[in-house]
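ok, trying the design again with the full structure, not the truncated one.
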C-alpha cells in the first residue's frame, strides 16, 4: 500500500471515528484525542468506529461517487460536456496512465478503507478476547460488527478488481489480481506485498462474505439503516454479484434463491423483504430507502461527496462538466423504446439527454446506489439460462419483472429467444438500460470478456473500441503503489 496513506489511516484510526451523516446511522457522543487503548472501551466508541468503516467506503473517490462514474464513462453510453481531466476525461477517452489522478485516488481510497477495516477487526478482537468489552456489548453485537467489517472489506476488494485486474473469465482467474492485505498496517513496515491472483482475491472475498453472513443481523429497526448498513440479505445479494462475475452460475442460482421467491411478486422471504419499487422514477426520490435499495452510500447536505465528486456533479443536466447520453445506434439510449419510462423520464437540456436519477446538484444529497434488487433478479435470470443452457419460463419472468416495470408493452415470451445467445444479448441490453449511471455497464462487459465499444464524442473526440486483448482493457496500477511497494508489478 502507499506509505503515506497507511500512516494517515493508522493515525486517524487512533482517534474515535464519528458519524456525520444521519442520526439513525448511530449517534455516538462526539469525542476526540482518544488513545488506541481506549477506543474500544465503550459501546458508543465501538459503534463510532463502525461508522468510520462506512465513511471509508463512501469516500468521494470511491463508492461515494466517482467509482460508479468511472465504470460508466469508460463505455459507450455517455459523452462529456468538457475535456476537464479533473472530471474523468482521461477515463472517458481511455488515456489514463499510472499517474492519472483517478487511477491513483481510487486505488488509495479503496486500500484506505481496507486498512481501516483491518485495524478495526484486530482492535475489536483484542479487546473482546481480553474481556474488556464484557457487559458493554453482547455476543450478537460483536458478531454484527465483525460481519459489517468483513463485508466492507469484501466490497472494497471486489470493486478494485473490476478496474485494476483482468476478469475472472480470462485464464480462470490466474492473472495478477491485487495485493491481498488482511492485516492492520500502522506503519510502512509491510508496504512490500506481491499481487495475489484474481482467483485468490475472489476466494478471499467469498471467505469474508460467507463468514459475515453467518454473523449478520437479520434486519435493523429502520429503513434507513436497512439500506445504509450491511445485514444478512445485503451479503447474500452481494454474493450473487460476485458469483456472476466468476461465472459460477449454480452459486448465483442457489444464493439468489435465498432472497427471491419462486414466483412474482418477487421478494425476500425472510429478513429485509426486498421488493421492486412499482415506480422506476420513485427509486430516485428522497429518502432513497425503498425496499428495492439493497445497499447505498448515504449523503446529506452537510456530508456528501461534494462538487466534482458526487453523482449529480456528473449526471445532472445543469452541472457544468457533466456527462450526457450518447444517442448513437447501439447505445442504451437508442435501444430503449420511446414508451419506456427509463427514456421518457430523461431530461432534455440544450439538445442533449441526461439521466434523471441524481438531480440534487444543490445539496449533493442523492444516495449512491451500490446495489438494487433489480440486479438480483436479473442476475438470477441470466444464471438460470447459463447454468442450464436453455431459456426457461422462470428466467423470462424474472427478466420481464424488471423490464415491464418501465415498459409495460415490452414483455418477452419464450418465443422471443430463438437461441440462448439471443437471450444473452437482450439480457445485457436490458442491464445497460436499467443501470445507466450506476457503474455496472463496464463491469458487465468485462466479466463476459466483451469489447468495450467505440464512441464518437463529436468535439470531445472519438475513442476506439477496446478489445479484451488491449492493455487498456483494465486500468494501470497506481504510480504511488508501484513506487512504495517494491514487490508490486504493473498491468
Amino acid at each position: 500500500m502507499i506509505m503515506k496513506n497507511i500512516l494517515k489511516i493508522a493515525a486517524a484510526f487512533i482517534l474515535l471515528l464519528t458519524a456525520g451523516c444521519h442520526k439513525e446511522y448511530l449517534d455516538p457522543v462526539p469525542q476526540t484525542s482518544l488513545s488506541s487503548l481506549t477506543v474500544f472501551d465503550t459501546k458508543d466508541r465501538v459503534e463510532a468506529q463502525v461508522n468510520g468503516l462506512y465513511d471509508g467506503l463512501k469516500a468521494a473517490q470511491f463508492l461515494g461517487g466517482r467509482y460508479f462514474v468511472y465504470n460508466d464513462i469508460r463505455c459507450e453510453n455517455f459523452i462529456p460536456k468538457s475535456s476537464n481531466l479533473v472530471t474523468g476525461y482521461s477515463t472517458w477517452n481511455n488515456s489514463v496512465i499510472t499517474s492519472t489522478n483517478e487511477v491513483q485516488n481510487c486505488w488509495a481510497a479503496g486500500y484506505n478503507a481496507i486498512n481501516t477495516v483491518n485495524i478495526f477487526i484486530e482492535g475489536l478482537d483484542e479487546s473482546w478476547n481480553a474481556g474488556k468489552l464484557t457487559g458493554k456489548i453482547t455476543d450478537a453485537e460483536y458478531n454484527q460488527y465483525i460481519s459489517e467489517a468483513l463485508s466492507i472489506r469484501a466490497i472494497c476488494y471486489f470493486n478494485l478488481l473490476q478496474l485494476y485486474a483482468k476478469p475472472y473469465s480470462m485464464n480462470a482467474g490466474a492473472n495478477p489480481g491485487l495485493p491481498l492485505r488482511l492485516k492492520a498496517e500502522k506503519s510502512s513496515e509491510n508496504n512490500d506485498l506481491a499481487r495475489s491472483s484474481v482467483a485468490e482475491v475472489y476466494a478471499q472475498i467469498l471467505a469474508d462474505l460467507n463468514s459475515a453472513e453467518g454473523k449478520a443481523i437479520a434486519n435493523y429497526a429502520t429503513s434507513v439503516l436497512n439500506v445504509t448498513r450491511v445485514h444478512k440479505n445485503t451479503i447474500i445479494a452481494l454474493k450473487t454479484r460476485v458469483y456472476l462475475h466468476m461465472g459460477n452460475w449454480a452459486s448465483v442460482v442457489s444464493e439468489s434463491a435465498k432472497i427471491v421467491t419462486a414466483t412474482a411478486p418477487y421478494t425476500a422471504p425472510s429478513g429485509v423483504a426486498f421488493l421492486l419499487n412499482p415506480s422506476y422514477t420513485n427509486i430516485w426520490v428522497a429518502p432513497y430507502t425503498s425496499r428495492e435499495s439493497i445497499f447505498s452510500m448515504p449523503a446529506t447536505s452537510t456530508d456528501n461527496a461534494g462538487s466534482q465528486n458526487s453523482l449529480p456533479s456528473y449526471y445532472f443536466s445543469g452541472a457544468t462538466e457533466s456527462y450526457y447520453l450518447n444517442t448513437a445506434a447501439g447505445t442504451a439510449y437508442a435501444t430503449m423504446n420511446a414508451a419506456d419510462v427509463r427514456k421518457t423520464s430523461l431530461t432534455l437540456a440544450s439538445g442533449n439527454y441526461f439521466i434523471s436519477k441524481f438531480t440534487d446538484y444543490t445539496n449533493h444529497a442523492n444516495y449512491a446506489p451500490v446495489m438494487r434488487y433489480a440486479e438480483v433478479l436479473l442476475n438470477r435470470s441470466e444464471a438460470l439460462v447459463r447454468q442450464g443452457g436453455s431459456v426457461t419460463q422462470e428466467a423470462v419472468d424474472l427478466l420481464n419483472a424488471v423490464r415491464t416495470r418501465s415498459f409495460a408493452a415490452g414483455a418477452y415470451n419464450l418465443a422471443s429467444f430463438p437461441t440462448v445467445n439471443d437471450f444473452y444479448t437482450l439480457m445485457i441490453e436490458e442491464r445497460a438500460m436499467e443501470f445507466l449511471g450506476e457503474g455496472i455497464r463496464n463491469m458487465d462487459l468485462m466479466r463476459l470478456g466483451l469489447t468495450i465499444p467505440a464512441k464518437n464524442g463529436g468535439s470531445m473526440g472519438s475513442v476506439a473500441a477496446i478489445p479484451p486483448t488491449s492493455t487498456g482493457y483494465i486500468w494501470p496500477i497506481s504510480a504511488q503503489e508501484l513506487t512504495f511497494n517494491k514487490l508490486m508489478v504493473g498491468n
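Keeping the full-length input from now on. DSSP finds 18 helices and ten strands in the chain.
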